[in-house]
Amino acid sequence: MKTKIKVWLFILAVGLLSQCKKEPLAKVTIPDDNFLNALIEQGVDSNGDGIITPFEAYKVTFLDVSGESISDLTGIEAFVNLDWLLCSNNQLTTLDVSNNTALIILYCSNNQLTTLDVSNNYALDELDCSNNQLTTLDVSNNTALIKLECSNNQLTTLDVSNNTALYELFCHNNQLTSLDVSNNNLSALDCSNNQLTSLDVSNTHFYYPLDCSNNQLTTLDVSNTDLGQLICSNNQLTTLDVSNNTRLHRLDCSNNQLTSLDISNNTALEMLALRDMPP
Length: 279
Prior knowledge:
Pfam families: LRR_EndoS (PF23952). The chain is an alpha/beta fold.
């Protein structure tokens, strides 16, 4: 009797093992061959079987797939522990990082993105989404953001009022009509080539150039003392007060409507450009 039981148990075990062998190995769905090949080349496929398993994706914290001719990043949602995602210089039209909540750095510039949702990425420190086709960008949940590059898009509005840690902002070559940086202690700002009519940067402390050229500015408040370089050319300014900017060493206010400019306090000034001014 015991022998028969052992035989039946053996048969059952063999059956279960054979059934297990028929079950396909769990894998991450990655329809874009260029994305899959880039992952394999970077060693994400740790066992060399040509597929990416959820566990293999789970272990990855840094991923650079820039310039790999990728048009679809489906599968990135499995990389839940990613700190860094670099996917610039591809052909992406969509990018879903809603599941990548550990992201600190996201570089997705030079693609064809029309939308980008980073509302779940609360830990994001740096975002570079420049040179895309974005018409809107919501960074209100990204309160840890230190650096934002969103230049060369089609943005008409940009709200950075919640981004109090923001240190560098590059939003040039858009269609912005207003920009409020009163809550941001910026060290660098390039908002050139927009449609701004006014700009108040009196609360900021710039260590790098402030470039607000090629807008429609009629007023510009730069009454902070740290400003070293100011480029405000090609606007409609009729007055400009730089009396508080004692550290100013470069000033370009060409092609405005200024009839006078007092630089008596700007003793550190090394370069002054006043081209194409009213007589």
